Q: What sequence folds into this?
């Protein structure tokens, strides 16, 4: 079950071609689920990210192995922490626009939801690209 979902509005892709999607994902099953990948409706690349302290500042990077959510537990995706990244955007995502995400689990399930873009100016992070 997904709740409180939203995406950071990116009104000018000349400045940034990526955005974060946030919300709460509750595992309502009786077994652990592991989110391993995803797709979205506004770009061709979706990544699962974590935020870590590196070289004295907070940096985002792809997470190895995905996010596991135990039965009955909720994982919160939020700015400055774990989140879903929409990468290589080709058009702006303005306040009020929608982005549909489909998350895929290691167990073969899909979780689809829509997030509304809203203005957000917090969480000053840098993206670190590397292969895991």
A:
């Amino acid at each position: 079950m997904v709740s409180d979902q939203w995406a950071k509005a990116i009104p000018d892709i000349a400045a940034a071609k990526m955005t974060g999607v946030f919300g709460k994902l509750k595992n309502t099953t009786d077994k652990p689920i592991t989110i391993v990948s995803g797709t979205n409706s506004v770009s061709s690349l979706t990544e699962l990210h974590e935020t870590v302290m590196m070289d004295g500042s907070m940096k985002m990077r792809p997470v190895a192995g995905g996010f596991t959510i135990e039965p009955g537990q909720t994982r919160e995706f939020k700015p400055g922490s774990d989140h879903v990244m929409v990468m290589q955007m080709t058009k702006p995502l303005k306040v009020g626009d929608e982005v549909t995400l489909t998350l895929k689990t290691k167990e073969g399930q899909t979780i689809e939801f829509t997030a509304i873009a809203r203005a957000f100016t917090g969480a000053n992070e840098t993206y670190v690209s590397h292969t895991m």
